[in-house]
Amino acid sequence: MKTLIKIAWRNLWRNRRRTLLTVASVVLALVLALFMRSMQLGSYEQMIKAGVNQVGYLQIHSKGYWEEQSIDRAFFDKDSIDAALKSTSGISKTLPFLQTFSLASYGNLTKGVLVDGIKPDKEDSQTNLSGKIVKGDYLTKSEHSVIIGDKLAQYLKMDVGDSLVLIGQGFRGITAYGIYPISGIFHLPSLQMNSQLVYMNLKDAQAFVYPYQEGLLTGISVFLNDPDHLPQVKKSLLTKLGKHYEATSWKVMLSDILQAIEVDNVSGELMLFILYIVVAFSIFSTILMMTMERSKQYSVMISVGMQRWQLVLVSMIETVIISLLGVLIGLLIISPVLYYFHENPIPLAGSMADLYLQFNIKPVLPFSVKPHIFASQTTIIFILSLVSVLYPVVFISRFNILNASRH
């Protein structure tokens, strides 16, 4: 075997230009494939992470709330719910919230808004909402105030210290009404959220929609230590909570984002498929030329006693060496580039930035460096290179020694 490896190595470097061109085609294919896939999957991870950071991996609602999303589908927080959440392993954090639609008014101006009752400290630890305050102060537990988006403040011509009037439908048919001073103005990447979102303390929101009893919620966001355990956690929670509650997965809540990812992923896989075809023909044509040029050499080697299967093995070793060289060089070239862009995402502008902002995602282009990306693309390119060895195997098995010696 050692002798065959030496023969294969020397055969490769008898024509350095041809070998280097083949290696370069493998390198180029791997670099392009890894760059494209890392960029795509990095964007998908960012979109999903941004969405999950807002809604959680699961949300607990009363039965039928997600389909209707009405304040009448709200439920009262109970000790049994808290006990079920605390006794379920894999849960890292829970965020109770109360959301309802209302009419916001100031002076002669009005606008429909989404009122989001939150626990300020827990929400801030999850989404860094206080870091998005551009004017005034963030909410506190005891403060009877609200914070609004800068676009909403601009539309209503309001400033910090002004009083916002909210009128809407409360729980069980009552009228919700309240006047709240503005303690702060925030700015989020999403224009829609800046124009329609009002945050207030959870207790104030509960008193706003139903002042007769404490603890009203429309949902509880559940965050996990390991996202892979989502099915087990969901099943366990539903068993403990009973038939009057539902657990909605992030895949349902973020279905719009997932659909956008699927559409984009198809186009990316199509481009990779075209790239793989080009690379496969490039490598195959080189192997074809190399095999035809060395037909006389093969006939001489068989004439002096080498077996055909040994020649086949030599050709296979040559292809493996070329593939390994191309893959290793490609990884050495592209890995530092991907890690750099992973730490320093490319900023986006124009229509692409606007598209990201619609989903409340920071307009940057991150790169993923997950090990499975390197493993999958390296394996595909390596297999494509090895497939080309089929031609010399068939050629050596069938070629005529006398004809090859004459030509």
From TrEMBL:
Organism superkingdom: Bacteria
A family per Pfam: MacB_PCD
Cell location: Cell membrane
Positions of transmembrane segments: 270-290, 311-341, 373-396
GO biological process, one term: lipoprotein localization to outer membrane
Residue intervals of the MacB-like periplasmic core domain: 22-237
InterPro entries xrefs: ABC3_permease_C (IPR003838), Lipoprotein-release_system (IPR051447), MacB_PCD (IPR025857)
Annotated membrane topology: Multi-pass membrane protein
GO CC annotation: plasma membrane protein complex
Keywords, sorted A to Z: Cell membrane, Membrane, Transmembrane, Transmembrane helix
Ranges where the ABC3 transporter permease C-terminal domain occurs: 271-400
Family: Belongs to the ABC-4 integral membrane protein family. LolC/E subfamily.
Protein name per UniProt: Transporter
Biological source species: Prolixibacter bellariivorans
